[in-house]
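Lecture notes, continued. The same structure-token format from the folding unit now serves as the input rather than the output. Read the line below as a description of shape only.
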């Protein structure tokens, strides 16, 4: 089992403490209580190799890269990237599991030789096969941005697609994606042919789990690249579909929803009078302005952000489905490059996005 971490705010703060407050990389000092280690962003657990080859001692699959087992003897294993027409691995093997270093989607061919005679060959073919996409837990916007590519992947390959994710998110997706099987984060179906791990992986030059730097391609495009859907052209105009459970309008007059909180200070609208002016302008136009953040006060260290003055407090740790039902009747949404902007986009209402921390094209 392999773990990899992403630089979430909490983890960045934890790892940076050695530089910021003299706390020796977050380790407890004398008289301090031990701090909990940050949770892993993604845990890779590919399990046993799943697919029999029909030859004793040889099995294969594409769970966490191309994998093949060979028995003791004079064997040789070769991995070929069929799209690139490139041999990426070719070496002797005896009584071992051989796995590719690249873990994202590659159109692999596996070849096994015994005493220089090819005895087994298999080209990756996902059609009708069980394929798992594993999403990280504890995040919202990234998964909403990535999920349309899961459906595009299923349609392209005609596979039996399983998606593992937090149960709350799975419940949102199920009505709109009846052909996808949803699993809890720790679940894996039997007989998996292939599995791919969705995320943004640090350090940014990690080329084992992602084929390019997400900072210069766009966070949502990372999913396309991991799944082999990025052909170098314009990204498909995809949006996750989020359906209201209750279409009854709870607020009679016109209203706008806003969200001013985010997971990193760089994502905030760091303009002292920005939200104040927007809320004042909208109210003058006859709108009620509802702030639907989870927290009405949020921040880290010495910097905290409060609900915009003049906005109505609809904050709270409410089910996302209730947010979707409320957004459904809003005239539009104003937010940051964060999760609730992706939720509003999925509902299908206009979104005004305030962002200044990414490259201009993004």
């Amino acid at each position: 089992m392999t773990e990899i971490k992403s630089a979430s705010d909490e983890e960045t703060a934890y790892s940076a403490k050695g530089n910021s407050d003299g706390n020796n990389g977050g380790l407890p000092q004398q008289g301090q209580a031990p701090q909990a280690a940050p949770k892993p962003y993604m845990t890779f657990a590919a399990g046993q190799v799943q697919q029999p080859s029909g030859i004793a001692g040889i099995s294969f699959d594409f769970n966490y890269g191309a994998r093949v087992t060979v028995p003791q003897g004079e064997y040789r294993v070769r991995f070929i990237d069929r799209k690139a027409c490139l041999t990426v691995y070719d070496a002797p093997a005896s009584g071992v599991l051989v796995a590719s270093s690249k873990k994202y989607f590659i159109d692999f061919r596996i070849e096994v030789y015994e005493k220089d005679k090819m005895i087994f060959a298999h080209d990756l073919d996902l059609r009708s096969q069980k394929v798992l996409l594993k999403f990280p837990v504890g995040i919202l916007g990234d998964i909403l941005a990535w999920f349309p590519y899961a459906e595009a992947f299923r349609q392209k390959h005609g596979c039996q697609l399983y998606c593992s994710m937090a149960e709350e998110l799975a419940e949102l997706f199920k009505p709109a994606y009846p052909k996808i099987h949803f699993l809890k984060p720790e679940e894996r179906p039997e007989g998996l042919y292939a599995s791919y791990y969705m995320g943004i992986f640090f350090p940014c030059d990690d080329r084992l789990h992602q084929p390019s730097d997400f900072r210069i391609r766009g966070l949502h495009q990372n999913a396309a690249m991991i799944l082999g859907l990025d052909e170098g052209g314009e990204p498909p105009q995809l949006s996750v579909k989020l359906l209201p459970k209750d279409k009854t309008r709870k607020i009679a007059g016109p209203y706008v929803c806003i969200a001013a909180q985010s997971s990193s200070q760089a994502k905030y609208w760091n303009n002292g009078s920005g939200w104040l002016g927007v809320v004042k302008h909208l109210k003058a136009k006859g709108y009620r302005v509802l702030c639907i953040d989870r927290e009405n006060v949020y921040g880290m260290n010495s910097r905290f952000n409060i609900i915009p003055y003049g906005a109505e407090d609809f904050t709270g740790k409410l089910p996302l489905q209730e947010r979707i039902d409320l957004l459904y009747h809003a005239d539009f949404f104003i937010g940051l490059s964060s999760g609730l902007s992706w939720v509003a986009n999925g509902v299908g209402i206009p979104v005004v996005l305030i962002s200044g921390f990414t490259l201009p094209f993004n």
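Point for the exam: The two ends are 35 Å apart (CA to CA).
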